[in-house]
C-alpha cells in the first residue's frame, strides 16, 4: 500500500553487506543478552512491574582502562525478530572502538521490539503511557548501573553515549539528565526542539533539490514543484482526479472523490514519487536516495514530456522498475484509502517483526511519541516553500490524526509539546556539557537541532552537503570528503574527552544523584498534574520558539562559515 513505507528501500539496501567486524548482529540469538529487572515505570515507586531489555556487547577491541561506548537504539526498529541491528549506523562506533580500545554496548529501546517487548500485553493507548523518552532515558541509566557491576566494568576510563536521529536526542539528553553516569555524548542528526508545525522540514527538502553540491539544481526543484502544483489543480476537477488515478494506478473506484484520500495521496506522494534528501547518499545506486540521480533523470524525463506531472509519472514508473530490479515486486495498485489507513494505525495487537503488519504497528508507536512529546509533523502549508502539493497536509490535519489514533485533542498535543521543551530546554540545550552535535546540510532534521553550543564544551559540526547521520556509516567508496572530515572531527573530540577521563568515575551507582529534571519527574508521579478540561484547551496550533543562543563563538562548524550558520539560525527563529 502506498502509505506503508517500504522502509528497506530507503535504508540503503545496496549497503547491507559490510565487513563482519563493523556490525552488531542480532541474527544469532546466542549473542542477545537480557536485563529483566528493568522498571516499567521509573517514576512511580508504587509500580513494581518490570520488563526484559535486550542488549548486545562487543569486546573485540576492549583494552584495560579503555572507555565504554554505548549505542542508544531508537525508533528504527532493529530489534524485531529476524532483523540485523546496527548494520549501518553502528559502523562508526565500531571503528571508533577499535581506535580507542573501547567495549561497545547496544541497548534496546522500550516498545520498539514489537511483539518481543514484554512490558505490556498490547499497544492500546492506555498501555502506551510508558512509551516516553524520559522513561527510555531512565532505562539507560538503570541499565548502566547494573551492567557496570555485573560485567565488572568498574575501570572504564569514560562512558560515551552515541545515537542518531531520535536516538541522537536521547544521547544528548542522557548526558544532561544523568551526568554522573554518562561522561560525554555524540549526538548525530538530533532534533532537540519539539515543534508541532515542522514547516522547516520541507523548506530544507526544497533547498536540497537546488543544492549543486549534491547534484540538485533550480531546474530540478522547479519541475518537482510544478508537477505537484499541477497535481493540486487537477484535484479541483472530476476529470483531473480521474486522470491522476489512472496516471499513478490508484486502487479503488474514484478514490480521489474523498477529500481525506486526497490528503493521504498528498502525504504519501513522497512514496509514489520518492526523493528523500535526508537519506541522500552519493553511493546509492537508485533515485530514491541519490539526489544527483533523481534530478538527472527528472531532467531527461522533462524533455520528453509535455507537463511536469507527466515527468513525475515517468519517474514513478522508473522507480518501480528500480525496485523490481532489486527483488521488490510492484504493487498491483497504490492504496490511498484513508479509512483503511486509520484502521491499520488503530490496531493494537503486538505482532512479530516478520508480520506484514509490523511496519504500521511501529509507525503507531512513534506517532504516539509525536503526539505525546515531540510533534515534528512535516506540514505542507499553502504559501510555504514546500515543493509538494500544498494545503492538504496542514497542522490541523496531523493534529486530527492524534485524536483519531489516541483520543488526544489539539490542545492536549500542543500542551505536551510545550512540556517537552520546558523539560529538556529545546534547541538551546541549556545546562549541559561535553556533547558534540553533528548535523548535515541537506538533512531537514537539522532545523530542530543544536547548531550553536551555549557551553564551551558543547561543540557543533555542520557538514555541508551531508544527509541524515551520513557520517555514522563506515568509510567506503564514494563517501564525500566532507563526511570523512566530519568523522575525523568526531574522533578528535572523543580523544580530547578521554585525555581528561578519570577511570571508574561513571561506574559508581551509589554516587549517582538525581538532576533537577529527574526529581521533577518523580515528584510529578507522586502528585500528577491535573487533567485539563477540554473546554480550556487551547486549540489554536502554536509552536514553542527556540530560545536564542547566548552570544559566543561557534565552537566548531565543518565547511560552513559563521555567517551561513548565523543566517540560518535567524531564519529558524523567525518561524
From TrEMBL:
Keywords: Glycoprotein, Hydrolase, Protease, Signal
One Pfam entry name: Peptidase_S28
Region (Disordered): 505-553
InterPro entries: AB_hydrolase_fold, Peptidase_S28, Ser_carbopepase_S28_SKS
UniProt keyword annotation of tRNA-binding present: no
A GO molecular-function descriptor: serine-type exopeptidase activity
Biological process according to GO: proteolysis
Family designation: Belongs to the peptidase S28 family.
Protein name: Thymus-specific serine protease
Protein species of origin: Cladocopium goreaui
Amino acid at each position: 500500500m502506498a502509505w506503508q513505507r517500504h522502509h528497506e528501500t530507503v535504508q540503503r539496501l545496496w549497503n547491507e553487506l559490510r565487513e563482519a567486524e563493523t556490525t552488531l548482529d542480532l541474527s544469532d540469538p546466542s549473542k542477545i543478552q537480557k536485563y529483566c529487572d528493568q522498571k516499567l515505570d521509573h517514576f512511580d515507586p508504587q509500580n513494581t512491574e518490570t520488563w526484559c531489555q535486550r542488549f548486545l556487547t562487543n569486546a573485540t577491541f576492549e583494552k584495560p582502562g579503555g572507555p565504554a561506548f554505548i549505542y542508544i537504539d531508537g525508533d528504527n526498529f532493529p530489534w524485531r525478530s529476524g532483523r540485523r541491528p546496527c548494520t549501518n549506523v553502528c559502523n562508526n562506533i565500531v571503528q571508533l572502538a577499535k581506535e580507542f580500545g573501547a567495549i561497545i554496548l547496544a541497548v534496546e529501546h522500550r516498545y520498539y521490539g514489537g511483539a518481543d517487548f514484554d512490558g505490556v500485553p498490547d499497544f492500546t493507548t492506555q498501555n502506551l503511557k510508558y512509551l516516553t523518552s524520559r522513561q527510555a532515558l531512565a532505562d539507560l541509566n538503570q541499565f548502566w548501573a547494573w551492567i557496570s557491576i555485573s560485567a565488572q566494568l568498574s575501570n572504564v576510563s569514560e562512558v560515551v553515549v552515541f545515537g542518531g536521529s531520535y536516538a541522537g536526542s536521547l544521547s544528548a539528553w542522557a548526558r544532561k539528565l544523568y551526568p554522573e553516569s554518562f561522561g560525554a555524548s555524540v549526538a548525530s542528526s538530533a532534533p532537540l526542539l519539539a515543534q508541532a508545525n515542522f514547516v522547516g522540514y520541507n523548506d530544507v527538502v526544497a533547498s536540497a533539490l537546488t543544492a549543486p553540491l549534491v547534484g540538485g539544481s533550480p531546474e530540478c526543484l522547479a519541475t518537482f514543484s510544478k508537477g505537484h502544483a499541477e497535481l493540486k489543480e487537477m484535484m479541483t476537477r472530476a476529470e483531473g482526479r480521474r486522470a491522476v488515478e489512472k496516471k499513478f494506478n490508484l486502487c479503488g473506484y474514484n478514490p480521489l472523490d474523498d477529500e481525506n484520500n486526497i490528503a493521504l495521496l498528498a502525504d504519501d506522494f513522497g512514496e509514489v514519487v520518492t526523493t528523500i534528501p535526508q537519506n541522500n547518499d552519493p553511493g546509492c545506486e537508485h533515485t530514491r536516495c541519490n539526489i544527483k540521480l533523481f534530478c538527472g533523470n527528472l531532467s531527461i524525463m522533462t524533455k520528453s514530456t509535455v507537463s511536469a506531472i507527466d515527468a513525475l509519472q515517468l519517474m514513478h514508473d522508473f522507480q518501480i522498475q528500480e525496485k523490481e530490479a532489486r527483488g521488490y515486486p510492484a504493487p498491483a495498485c497504490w492504496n490511498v484509502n484513508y479509512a483503511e489507513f486509520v484502521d491499520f494505525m488503530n490496531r493494537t495487537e503486538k505482532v512479530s517483526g516478520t508480520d506484514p503488519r509490523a511496519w504500521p504497528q511501529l509507525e503507531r508507536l512513534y506517532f504516539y511519541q509525536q503526539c505525546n512529546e515531540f510533534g515534528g509533523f512535516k506540514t505542507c502549508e499553502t504559501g510555504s516553500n514546500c515543493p509538494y502539493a500544498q494545503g492538504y497536509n496542514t497542522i490541523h490535519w496531523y493534529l486530527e490524526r492524534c485524536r483519531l489514533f489516541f483520543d488526544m485533542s489539539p490542545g492536549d498535543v500542543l500542551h505536551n509539546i510545550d512540556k517537552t521543551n520546558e523539560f529538556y530546554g529545546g534547541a538551546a540545550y541549556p545546562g549541559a556539557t561535553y556533547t558534540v552535535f553533528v548535523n548535515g546540510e541537506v538533512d531537514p532534521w537539522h532545523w530542530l537541532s543544536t547548531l550553536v553550543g551555549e557551553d564551551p564544551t558543547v561543540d557543533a559540526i555542520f557538514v555541508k552537503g551531508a544527509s541524515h547521520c551520513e557520517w555514522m556509516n563506515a568509510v567506503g567508496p564514494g563517501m564525500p570528503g566532507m563526511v570523512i572530515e566530519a568523522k575525523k572531527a568526531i574522533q578528535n573530540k572523543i580523544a580530547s574527552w578521554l585525555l581528561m577521563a578519570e577511570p571508574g568515575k561513571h561506574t559508581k551507582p551509589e554516587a549517582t544523584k538525581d538532576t533537577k529534571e529527574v526529581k521533577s519527574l518523580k515528584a510529578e508521579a507522586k502528585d500528577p498534574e491535573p487533567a485539563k478540561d477540554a473546554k480550556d484547551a487551547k486549540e489554536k496550533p502554536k509552536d514553542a520558539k527556540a530560545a536564542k543562543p547566548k552570544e559566543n563563538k561557534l565552537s566548531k562548524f565543518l565547511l560552513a562559515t559563521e555567517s551561513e550558520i548565523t543566517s540560518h539560525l535567524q531564519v529558524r527563529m523567525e518561524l
